[in-house]
Amino acid sequence: MQHYKIQYAYWGMGEFFAALFPKRGALENFHSKLKSITHSDNIILLNSGRTAIRIALKVMKSSNPDRKQVIVPAFSCDAVFEAIKAEGLEIRLVDVDENLNLSIDKLKQQNFDDVLAVVAEHCFGLPLDMETICALSAKHKFFVIDDSAHIQKIKYRGRYMGGYGDFGINSFAQSKTMVGGRSSSGGALIINNPDFVASAHKYAQELQESKNTIGEFIFFVWVYLWEHQTRAIRHYFTTFFRRPDTSQIVGMSRMNSTNAAILLCQYEKLDKIIEGKKHVVQLYKKIANEFPRIELVQKISEHYIIKLNFKIPTNMSVETVFQALKQENIQARRPYDIHWTKEYPNSENANAIADHMIELPTTIGMTEHDVRSILTVFQKVIS
Ligand SMILES: Cc1ncc(COP(=O)(O)O)c(C=O)c1O
User: Fold this and answer.
1) Any residues with Cβ below 6 Å from ligand 1, and which?
2) Which of 185, 205, 225 represents a domain boundary (last residue)?
3) Which pTM value belongs to this model?
4) Of 29, 35, 32, 10, which is closest to residue 271 (Cα–Cα)?
5) Do 40 and 135 belong to one domain?
6) What are phi and psi of 87, to 5 degrees?
């Protein structure tokens, strides 16, 4: 059987050249492109989404130092938790709904007296009801981060996602919509609240440009993009060429021109990426109807989604399914590691869903035949 892999980025020769010979003005150029797709004048380019969250939190903390808690959906990326902890704030988990987005019903039941902010995340791109969250924020005086880490140029009720609340954030790390490289290869802070523009810029100006190196770029290409071809010789590669030192880039920094140059190429492909991915997702939705045991986790209509997750039976472990698919040449991906969630009570949905789902490949260009082959194997594995 053909090998079906998870695609970490859609890169071509343009991205390679851009990384090796970054054009002058790439940062300014990407900045203005991002402004045009978010319709915002106040964007700061950074090394990661978590840096963007941290700057947002710093600004909010200094605006309301009495409040200490940040609400996060109980199914979320580690990076979000790390950012909140790093700013010395307390995490309050609120359970997710069956679509893996923050449960609006549970959010409404919260006492907001000590809540500084809510991280409103569109899980894998599925829009969260931002209007209700913003109405609650006006009533209870907490701030909102519109966490659009996963998506760019997607509108929700007439406004670009990332444009709600006080701040929006984007990430350009692997597997997102536009990819600048591995983790810490790009992020953006969108400042929606005009009162926060000056202070956010002040924090950003204190940061250095990211030291992301060419070694880091090669590592991403070798290990992620060429994963299938390089697997066999990876052992020798890692023996002779040590993994690049990432200690300088994982902290807080501003985006560098290499990542901006790569992202400019990604910007040129953005519409194709969005449309191509939507097409594959629709193929899955249609063909999944032929398989009675197969069920999607999120209820997707026409949405753009970066990852497509399927339910697995409660009596099977994610690892068993993962390994069985691997045997059949299908690379699947495990869900977020939700060890944080497990430490907090009252997150039944997040715990129940996260332990029983798996992502299948949704590579742009897949045909009906590809999708049917993958789902045939998947149904066999979970039956
Ligand atoms: C929802 C969400 N928010 C924020 C981030 C942080 O982005 P970054 O990895 O660029 O720090 C991520 C990372 O994947 C994420 O999934």
Assistant:
1) 48-50, 76-77, 79-80, 121, 147, 149, 171, 173, 183, 187
2) 205
3) 0.93
4) 10
5) yes
6) -90, 10
